[in-house]
Amino acid sequence: MSKPLNVLFVTSEVEPFIKTGGLADVSASLPQTIKELGHEIRIAAPRYGSISERKFKIHDVIRLKEIGVPVGERVKMANVNSSFIANTKAKVQVYFIANKEFFGRHGIYVSPETKKDYADNDERFIFFSRSVLETLKRLGWKPDVIHCNDWQTGLIPAYVKTIYSNDPFYKNIKTVFTIHNLAYQGIFPASSFKKTGLPDSVFTPDGLEFYEKMNFMKAGLVYSDVITTVSEKYAEEIRTSAEYGCGLEGVIQKRRQHLHGIVNGIDYEIWNPQTDTVIPVRYDVHTIEGKVENKKALLKKFNLEFKEHIPVIGMISRLVDQKGLDLIEEISDEMLKTDVKFVLLGAGEKQYQDFFESLHKKHPSKVGVYFGYSEEIAHLIEAGSDMYLMPSKYEPCGLNQLYSLKYGTVPIVRATGGLEDTIVDADSAASGTGFKFKKYDAKELLKAIHRALKLYHDHGTWKKIMQNGMVQDFSWEASAKQYASLYRTLVK
Ligand code: ADP
Ligand code: GLC
């Protein structure tokens, strides 16, 4: 076998420490699988105030104390803390970049008090990006590849290609930039650019300037050696359509030769009804009957009456525009005319929370809602629901439809991004695993739900659809191998 590679995986979220969405799941399970393949991979993330030192046994790295990091005219101090993530096969070191001023608060990107993005998010992630690079040199550990994720890490490729490129330590380090969500770009006023310390020559439309502002995501897209995103379909959507490209479609189209769609996997050590320790009754494809006990527990949790043959539609979601919640709003009364229950676990924007709250009040015997964040309820919804709703406006990959497949919970999805790539429509193929609709239109969604409800009462067919889903293999191995061979092509 060829020589193992050294990889640093840089992310703003990682399970089980800190999570707002799927990026955190990916940031834990992908590095673990890369490690299983025999490479040395470590993770760098910010040390947010809400990460418990006690729970995760986080400790200082003594020789990585008081690293001076320039942010604009000032020098801010970074300390590096360390911890591990481990599954049964691999253990990966995590470096946390600590600075009380920037990260010693409770929110991650958004202030819990004002519900607005922190005003200094530019400085926070400039500081984080430079700290990561400074840390490597102090450590004396030179990665072959730095794998960056989303806008928060977009400046790293720009730094490596400019102000750090004269230093022999950083020379030859390659960068991979993964887009998990192109709609969040990290756009700041031109004045933020001054704080980066990057040369003025990069503040142009060919560089990281975006209509006279600075754009962190664009920096990652322009300066990385390779760009990836989390499904093939999304890779196509973001370079061919303004709707999905969010203004960066031209930049991506230009770099299409360096763009790869690699679908996310999921961690079956955490998301597997056969071994899940959170749910009341474990089951697998041969003991699907076990699912009904979980349905009972789920309905109890949401104070809804259990009737075995009334289908439960579940949903776990960030409550944001991306997730197609306006479509649900449009058809909710119509959907609830049929004999069905709906349960939602979600956190996010107030307008959506208000809507689901009012829906629950209007249909208290049919609709259950839980606002907030709960791993436990998320597992219970996957195990106890019959169907899973994901009518996203766009979906780079999506993980919950993959969890749903494994739990025999049949996904109803919009055919976009990773949802298109991972779900096969049951009305058009015997190997079908779910129900898909194409056009972003509430009536189309309703039709898909009605198709699902109809087949639900055809027990034989329904069981077959569940089984088709449960035997799918979306483990990380195949995708991790694709990342590893991409890294390899960069490090010749
Ligand atoms: P996105 O990253 O766009 O939110 P994904 O489907 O990739 O979408 O991943 C979402 C992840 O976040 C899943 O692991 C899902 O279970 C989890 N999640 C979302 N909202 C909640 C919540 N309120 N409570 C618990 N888990 C949640
Ligand atoms: C983003 C996307 C989601 C994807 C996740 C992990 O949050 O919205 O579709 O699954 O990142 O890549």
Give an account of the 3D structure.
The chain has 492 residues and is of the alpha/beta class. The chain folds into 2 domains: 6-265 and 477-491, Rossmann fold; 288-473, Rossmann fold, CATH 3.40.50.2000. The protein contains 18 helices and 19 strands. Strands 1, 2, 3, 4, 5, 6, 7, 8, 12 and 13 form a 10-stranded mixed beta sheet that branches. A 6-stranded parallel beta sheet has the order 16-15-14-17-18-19, with helices on both faces. A 3-stranded antiparallel beta sheet has the order 9-11-10. β7, α4 (155-161) and β8 (174-179) form a beta-alpha-beta unit. Bound molecules: adenosine-5'-diphosphate and alpha-D-glucopyranose. Residues 21-23, 26, 180-181, 230, 264, 395-399, 418 line the site of alpha-D-glucopyranose (GLC).
Q: Can you tag this structure with a few keywords?
A:
492 residues; Rossmann fold; 10-stranded mixed sheet; 36% helix; binds adenosine-5'-diphosphate; binds alpha-D-glucopyranose
User: Count the helices. How many?
Assistant: 18
| CATH-defined architecture of the largest domain | 3-Layer(aba) Sandwich
Strand residues, percent? 15-25%
Radius of gyration: 23 Å
Name the hetero compounds present.
adenosine-5'-diphosphate, alpha-D-glucopyranose
CATH class of the largest domain: Alpha Beta
Low-confidence stretches: none
Structural class of the helix and strand makeup? alpha/beta
Number of distinct beta strands: 19
Separation, N- and C-terminal Cα atoms: 15 Å
- Summed over residues and divided by their number, the pLDDT gives a mean of 97
CATH topology of the largest domain: Rossmann fold
CATH superfamily of the largest domain: Glycogen Phosphorylase B
